[in-house]
Write a structure and sequence with these properties.
This protein has about 130 residues and is an alpha+beta fold. The protein has three helices and eight strands; from the N terminus they run H-H-E-E-E-E-H-E-E-E-E.
């Protein structure tokens, strides 16, 4: 696996509106993938805060990339459960989304996601996910 393969997966497997988020694969390890979500007016709400909908779309996308990395290839999947906690607003900086595969079996995969400020490193959202592997 390499960052170019993971970056290409965003164009190959994701809807155009997800691609419009301009997510960039920053790095990956055996257990996780790190994406950057650029800050911009189209993703911000009043006061310049990154909207929760953009964070959730980025988190879900990051987890799918983490599964691609884990399995070494794309496997069709669907989100079964997604639980998030917003810890504080994110303003005036890009977001870093780190998705980790906690466990992946034959039928289900479980993951955890941390979203933090790219400049200050402070966590702004935590999420847990479950995916059905099809």
């Amino acid at each position: 696996m390499n960052t170019d393969t993971l970056q290409a997966a965003l164009a190959d497997y994701f809807a155009p509106w997800v691609q419009a988020l301009a997510l960039k694969v920053e790095s990956f390890t055996a257990e996780s993938v790190l994406l950057r979500l650029p800050q911009g007016d189209q993703l911000s709400r009043v006061g310049g805060m990154l909207c929760g909908q953009a964070m959730m779309a980025a988190a879900d996308s990051a987890m799918v990339l983490a599964l691609i990395n884990h399995f070494g290839e794309f496997r069709p999947c669907t989100t079964v459960q997604f639980s998030s906690s917003f810890l504080k607003p994110l303003s005036a900086q890009d977001a870093l989304i780190e998705a980790k595969v906690v466990r992946a079996g034959k039928a289900l995969a479980f993951g955890e996601i941390d979203i933090r400020g790219a400049r200050d490193g402070k966590s702004v959202c935590r999420a847990s996910t479950t995916y059905a592997l099809l």
